[in-house]
Design brief:
Length: 50
């Protein structure tokens, strides 16, 4: 399962990918400490092949 971290700062936005929830939370906290705002974590939806 992949997790995407979306965040914004004065220059624009970024999207980062992490493979675990714990790693995504850690990175989100780091981004907030660096001054990013609107930080959110989105879980990638599973898709099944037909």
């Amino acid at each position: 399962m992949a997790y995407f971290i979306h965040a914004r700062d004065a220059a624009g936005g970024i999207t980062l990918r992490r493979e675990s929830r714990e790693a995504a939370v850690k990175k989100a906290e780091e981004l907030r400490a660096m001054g990013y705002f609107e930080v959110e974590i989105v879980e990638q939806a599973e898709t099944k092949a037909a």
